[in-house]
Specification:
Helix content is 3%, strand content 42%. The protein is mostly beta strands and 958 residues long. The strands form 15 sheets. Strands 8, 9, 10, 11, 12, 13, 14, 15, 16, 17, 18, 19 and 20 form a 13-stranded antiparallel β-sheet that branches. Strands 34, 35, 36, 37, 38, 45, 46, 47 and 48 form a nine-stranded antiparallel β-sheet that branches. A six-stranded antiparallel β-sheet has the order 26-27-69-32-67-66, covered by helices on one side. The mean pLDDT is 93.
């Protein structure tokens, strides 16, 4: 194939496209004039090339124990990926653990390229990594000369302003001096980063090394020339073609002269330091004071316990050693060819927990009860060898070597016996200090009366408030939140999380709505209506409103985002969704499933909530370090059992659900031996790790399945007139991500690449167009890496045009607190101009924030460290899960052991039978612990011989 490229006296670059990966292509170049035609061809250097890319992600990765039974290593295996045009040269296996707090797996590095000044055109290149790429031929360098001579023509490889290295010394290719087939001018490279064209490589520099002949010259990996408004997709391809860079994601924001390209390094973990920074050669950028500056947007952080091992291409497996049993290790494998490392692959599931047999038990006692019976007591453990202990193996007899012994049937873990211990590394323990105990009860009991009286009508999905004569109404919206547990009569429900559940207000209709005055007229007169009160969310036609005032008995003042009036004379129903006197009921086990009450109507009765409920919390930031602090929406001062003030340092609580929600503790950091929870306030709850409350922990996506969903609206509008449909576009930015797939809202110009990601404001004005455009916006948003699922609807108003898109974030990755979307490039930067009217600035509003409920762990009153057995018995029997216990106290070093026997009403699960020892005081490391123990009585012969016994814990490994 021959291509006529054009005239360029200074040489040029030309990209050959639409090639087949893996094939060898030979290339040559002609010079031609318009009198005699083409001259002789000149082969390129090298004369051929193979179009190729980095290897794809490694697949079929498996993690296993291999032959190990100790739980201290694992075997990683994988398949060899295909790599057309370049064989695999090796692998990198990386493994790490999950942190207890965000960021769970480190932080991806982000580097920025920012355009500055007034740029009128031109190109730039980007280099990355060490100056270690050997160039063809050799060079001679003479001490004191400001140039080097080369054996081959390097002018097609090196540009003025590039970095080069010879004999271990680094220079820039100077902007002055002769750059020819045999000569390279040198410039000082002290300032090699972020130099403007006017200052880059302008200072000639003599070669300061020893005079050499036949030296190798090196340069950085760098891109071809890129336009000053290069698309993020094109920049991404150019960067990923560099062997020094793995896989990246590029987003572009701003506009001409103010572009910012954000480069996120996806496959390279941890921080990247010089020379692993994006270096721009700006010499060919034109304009007034133009430049393109590189900077660090986000400093990368390596995952916890990060390690890497390089594996030769001849192997597709490796044994990773030095692991800790019971710790989940996350593993990735990536392959490299001459283009560098590709994207890593992950196994499914992404982690493996090495497991070994349990360790030997501690605290095993044997004592004689009679001539024919002995008592064996041992401490039980939940986990050992990295797995749950599922049974205990007991042997006993008169033989100390156990060659002859009686083996009991496997003994299962039990919940009947518990030992509570206080101790200190250095005593004595302060006799005035205290501790608390808890069973695994975050649910509590329904004993908090909301006040007021309520109805649950047959075949209804709402609890509604009534006001008997002389009664006082309460505001349900500050007493219970969506997702909360409530009980009316003997019926238990959860308040629905879905904000669209509603009911038609019987006997009330809307006769008129004036969107300009924000007034709804109703009929008949309300006359102190118990449900339609200030703060109630209603829907009339398809307009969502919140009642803000009651100007008269027949009018409601409302807030809304609607732009069409109706009436007078209408008879539209008024639908109630939520308010101070109305809450929707859902299934107790699933707050997303509405329930219809089918029994007899329940009238004028109280409603109760749980005594462990602490209300809703916002600031649910799952992806940022700030996700370890949540904010309470109210402090129930009238009932401190339902407020944050009921918590203390190191106390336990659950988020989302009292049965299965995430468990955390009040963050209690320590400075030396002094610990405190100053971050705990009447409105702020800091999250601490369940095992180490002095360490921060973070919200999980699973927890937020019980949270409300965030809803945002986008308003595209004009003050007067109407837009023409079918033209006019914009992009959406969500965090660092910008839409980059659709072309529907592009300007239709010849540069198609400049139009990617432009959404069309409207394809038409019909209901069918509303549905189609909503689907298009949904599809585009779900192409963004940070969004997996949304629901989109649109309401379109005319004269003037106002288009309101409503976006509900329903996916797994969009739970919790989200960035506010931004409308960018409205009618610009490749997006089509609006016609027919002048667009106003777009408005984005958060209609509903995400919040989740929290539940404290029920705990005893403070127990003195000197408490008697009767004191501890009384404290434990306060707990709702406990019935009757027997307690025996014994001295244990500088503290006590309280042996607790659940004599009646044994709890099914004591996994969180915990002690909070924050208020214990001693010279060094006071501690209160709760340990399950078991007591087994063994029948023996009355033969006056010694009895020996032993116990082993068992897990899935043996």
């Amino acid at each position: 194939t021959t291509t006529l490229y054009g005239t360029n006296a200074n040489g040029a670059e030309y990209s050959i496209t639409s090639l087949t990966a893996g094939l060898t292509y030979f290339t040559r170049v002609y010079c031609s004039n318009n009198q005699l035609g083409a001259g002789p061809p000149v082969a390129t250097v090298p004369p051929s090339a193979i179009p190729r890319q980095k290897p794809p992600a490694v697949d079929t990765i498996t993690l296993s124990a291999g032959t190990d039974t100790t739980g201290k290593s694992m075997l990683v295996t994988w398949n060899t990926p295909t790599s057309p045009g370049s064989s695999v040269q090796g692998y990198a296996v990386e493994w790490y653990t999950k942190s207890v707090a965000v960021p769970y797996f480190g932080v991806q590095t982000q580097q920025l390229l920012t355009s500055m000044g007034t740029i009128t055109g031109g190109t730039f290149t980007v280099a990355f990594g060490a100056t270690d790429v050997p160039l063809p031929g050799v060079a001679n360098a003479v001490n004191g000369q400001s140039y080097i001579t080369t054996s081959v023509d390097l002018t097609g490889i090196l540009q003025r302003g590039d970095l080069l290295s010879i004999s271990g010394l680094t220079y820039l290719v100077a902007t002055t001096g002769v750059l020819s087939a045999s000569s390279i001018p040198l410039a000082d490279a002290t300032a090699w980063l972020n130099q403007a064209p006017i200052a880059l490589a302008i200072t000639p520099a003599p070669y300061t090394g020893n005079t050499v002949q036949g030296a190798v010259v090196y340069r950085q990996h760098r891109t071809p020339s890129l336009s000053v408004n290069v698309l993020p997709t094109d920049l991404q391809v150019a960067l990923e073609n560099l062997p020094s860079i793995g896989r990246v994601r590029v987003a572009r924001t701003g506009s001409t002269n103010n572009f910012v390209w954000t480069v996120t390094f996806l496959s390279q973990f941890g921080p990247l330091a010089s020379p692993n920074v994006l270096r721009v050669n700006s010499l060919n950028i034109a304009g007034t004071a133009p430049n393109l500056v590189s900077s660090i947007g986000v400093v990368g952080v390596s995952p916890q316990n990060y390690k890497i091992q390089l594996v030769p291409s001849t192997s597709t497996s490796v044994v990773l050693s030095g692991l800790k049993p019971g710790t989940a290790y996350f593993v990735t494998v990536k392959a490299a060819n001459d283009r560098g490392y590709g994207m890593f692959g992950s196994p499914a599931p992404p982690s493996y927990t090495p497991i070994g047999i349990p360790d030997a038990l501690s605290n095993v006692w044997l004592r004689s009860l009679s001539q024919t019976q002995v008592e064996l007591m041992y401490d039980e453990v939940d986990m050992s060898g990295g797995a749950a202990v599922d049974q205990y193996l007991i042997e006993y007899g008169n033989d100390a070597s156990f060659q002859v012994a009686t083996a009991l049937p496997p003994v299962l873990p039990q919940n009947k016996y518990v030992r509570v211990t206080t101790s200190a590394d250095l005593g004595p323990i302060d006799p005035t200090s205290v501790f608390t105990l808890s069973l695994s009860n975050y649910f509590g009991v329904y004993n908090v009366d909301l006040g007021g009286y309520f109805n649950l009508i047959a075949n209804s999905q709402f609890i509604t408030q009534v006001i008997p004569g002389g009664g006082v109404a309460v505001d349900l919206t500050i007493l219970v939140a969506r997702g909360e547990f409530v009980k009316i009569a003997n019926q238990e429900y959860r308040v629905c999380l879905d904000p669209t559940t509603s009911f038609a207000m019987a006997g009330v209709s809307a006769t008129q709505f004036n969107f300009a005055t924000n007034v709804v007229t109703v009929s008949p007169a309300l006359n102190n209506h118990p449900i339609l009160v200030v703060g109630t969310t209603i829907v009339v036609r398809d307009c969502l409103m919140v009642i803000t005032g009651l100007p008269s008995t027949t009018t409601l003042s409302v807030s809304h985002q609607c732009f069409a009036s109706f009436g007078p004379g209408a008879t539209d129903p008024v639908y109630v969704r939520w308010g101070p006197s109305a809450i929707p009921i859902c299934d107790k086990s699933n707050p997303w499933t509405p329930v219809t009450y089918t029994g007899f109507s329940i009238l004028e009765v109280p409603v109760f909530k749980l005594d462990t409920a602490m209300g809703p919390f916002t600031n649910l930031d799952v992806t940022a370090a700030s996700g370890n602090v949540v904010t309470g929406q109210w402090n129930d001062a009238a009932n401190t059992a339902n407020s944050i003030s009921s918590l203390g340092c190191e106390d336990y609580f659950r988020l989302g659900d009292p049965y299965s929600g995430q468990i955390a503790r009040v963050l209690t950091p320590c400075i030396g031996a002094t610990c405190g929870c100053a971050g705990l306030t009447p409105t702020v709850l800091p999250l601490g790790d369940i095992a180490s409350p002095n360490l921060e922990t973070s919200l999980s996506y699973d927890t937020l399945q019980y949270a409300t969903q965030e809803i945002q609206t986008i308003r595209i509008s004009t003050a007067t007139g109407d837009f023409n449909s079918g033209v006019g576009g914009f992009r959406l930015q969500f965090g660092a991500d910008v839409t980059a797939t659709t072309l529907a809202g592009g300007n239709g110009g010849i540069n198609v690449n400049a139009q990617y990601g432009c959404l069309l404001w409207a394809s038409g004005v019909t209901a069918l167009a509303d549905a189609a455009d909503s689907a298009a916006l949904k599809a585009e948003l779900e192409t963004l890496p940070s969004i997996d699922q949304v629901q989109v609807s649109r309401k379109l108003y005319l004269n003037p045009t106002i288009a309101v898109y409503s976006i509900t974030f329903t996916g797994f990755r969009v739970r919790g607190k989200l960035p506010t979307m931004q409308v960018v490039d409205q009618g610009s930067n490749g997006c089509g101009a609006f016609t027919g009217a002048t667009p106003a600035a777009a408005v984005v509003t958060k209609v509903q924030n995400a919040y989740v409920n929290a539940y404290r762990l029920e705990k005893t009153s403070d127990i003195p460290v000197t408490a008697t057995a009767e004191d501890v018995k009384a404290a434990i029997e306060q707990l709702s899960l406990s019935c009757k216990v027997d307690v025996v106290r014994r001295v244990a070093k500088n503290g006590f052991n309280w042996f607790v026997t659940f004599s009646r009403g044994v709890p099914v699960n004591l996994l969180t039978f915990n002690a909070n020892d924050y208020k214990l005081r001693a010279a060094l490391a006071p501690l209160a612990t709760v340990t399950r123990v078991n007591i087994v009585k063994l029948n023996v012969l009355n033969n006056a011989q010694n009895v020996y016994a032993r116990v082993a814990a068992h897990n899935v490994a043996g």
